[in-house]
Amino acid sequence: MYRKLLLMVVLLVLTNHLTAQNHLEYAFPEKVMNEINKYVNKQLSNNPKQTFYALLRSKNQNNEYTIYISEYTSGSNEKEDFLIANTNRLIHLDALKVPVILSEDFNFVAHGYGKRGDKTVPIRLHIICEGFYIRFSKTGKVIETGW
Predict the structure, then answer these.
(1) Is residue 131 classed exposed, middle or buried when 0-12, 13-18 and 19+ CB atoms within 10 A define those classes?
(2) Which of 4, 10, 129, 147 is the most buried (most CB within 10 A)?
């Protein structure tokens, strides 16, 4: 009996460890991470239960990236919920882990299918980026922050 219980505990710990490692942790340049942490910590001081997600926009013509940190309430947007629940990308901050969604997720993930004329076509989402943002270069230079 003791051996079976010990075996079950070991298997449970191994399974939990393996599934916990099934993600991609984004490591943005230090100055970018500092700005994100500063914003998130300020928001958490006002509302400790607040949750967030990050939206990473691809580099622009100047090879700059933009990351938006948006407040998130589960159940408020079905399509947003789906993307957040199914991403395996995250940013590990001081206070929490924040899921990362790529702008391409909204552009290319099919959110069901509909009819256009006599064709069945995928339903695409458009996103309005809002919230705190940081525009930065690949080398980590913070170009702009704002709302």
Answers:
(1) middle
(2) 129
- Confidence at residue 99, expressed as pLDDT on a 0 to 100 scale: 95
3-state class (DSSP) for residue 6: helix
Identity of the amino acid at 26 = Y
Q: Give the pLDDT of residue 134.
A: 95
| Three-class secondary structure of residue 130 per DSSP | coil
- In terms of DSSP bridges, do strands 119-122 and 113-116 run parallel, antiparallel, or are they unpaired? antiparallel
What is the pTM (predicted TM-score) of this model? Answer: 0.73
Amino acid at site 87:
T
The CA distances from residue 89 to 2, 86, 93, 123, in Å, are 39, 9, 13, 23
Alpha helices in 87-141, H assignment, sequence order: 103-108
The answer to whether 102 and 36 are in contact (CB under 8 A) is: no
- Exposure string for 6-38, b = 16+ CB within 10 A, e = fewer: eeeeeeeeeeeeeeeeeeeeeebbeebbebbee
**Three-state secondary structure string covering 31-81:** HHHHHHHHHHHHHHHHCCCCEEEEEEECCCCCCEEEEEEEEECCCCCHHHH
